[in-house]
Amino acid sequence: MATRKKRKRYTPAQRAQIMGAAEKQGLTAVQVQKKFGVTPVTYYSWRKKTGKAAKRGRRGPGRPAGGDLAVQVRSEVQSRVRQILPGIVRTEVNSYLDVLFGPGRRGSRKA
Prior knowledge:
The protein is an all-alpha fold and 111 residues long.
């Protein structure tokens, strides 16, 4: 039967020093393990507890990857769509009404 290694305990000061060095040097979890002897699971746990864990995948709602330019382009496209959409909807509705009821006079209802 294999013997287990004894767990090493790190003081809050040691944790802060390791986390600070890892962040400053841009180390990966494997590099932290090689340099300081902290397992990747422990390192990720510390990062999560300190709020420094990177979010995976999505950048968040409405946060494009390109920065300011992407935000500006998105805004311009939305603005243009808002301008042209009413005309498109009006044309499509009128076309549908013409199919249903035949071409007729619109907007000239007598009271």
